[in-house]
Amino acid sequence: MEKPRIFNMSFSSIYPLYIQKVERKGKTKQEVDEIIYWLTGYDEVSLQQQIKDEVSMEQFFNEAPCMNPKAVLIKGVICGYRVEEIEDDMMRKIRYLDKLIDELAKGKAMQKILRA
Questions:
Q1: pTM for the whole thing?
Q2: Closest CA relative to residue 44, chosen from 62, 55, 32
Q3: Where exactly are the structural domains of the chain?
């Protein structure tokens, strides 16, 4: 079966879109980065390296140092799908990030976004 197109898209092409989305709502790149660090275990240096290397979304998540175990607490609808019901593990990870960015853009408190 053919992989969804998003798997092969470069993270470096999607990352600026996340930033643009939240900046339109008065949020910052630093907050986007904080969400990515929390979800994936990347730090500033390793995140910038992934962007520089133009890795695919699939590679970005496959190489994530440590997916946060609290990610399973991320629930709700994104792109018309309930994230907790997405069967494909890779697609679920991608949608987790989409959902967190969406919550930030909607003004949700960072403490709640990070499931603290």
A1: 0.95
A2: 32
A3: 5-109
In 3D, which of 97, 64, 62, 61 has the Cα closest to residue 78? 97
CA distance 67 to 3: 21
Task: Give residue 32's identity as a one-letter amino acid code.
Answer: V
Output the tens digit of pLDDT for each of the chain's 116 residues. 788 999 999 999 999 999 999 999 999 999 999 999 999 999 999 999 999 999 999 999 999 999 999 999 999 999 888 999 999 999 999 999 999 999 999 999 999 999 98
Span 5-109: which CATH code?
1.10.8.290
Distance CA 23, CA 43 (A): 21
Rounded Cα distance between 107 and 85, Å, is 25
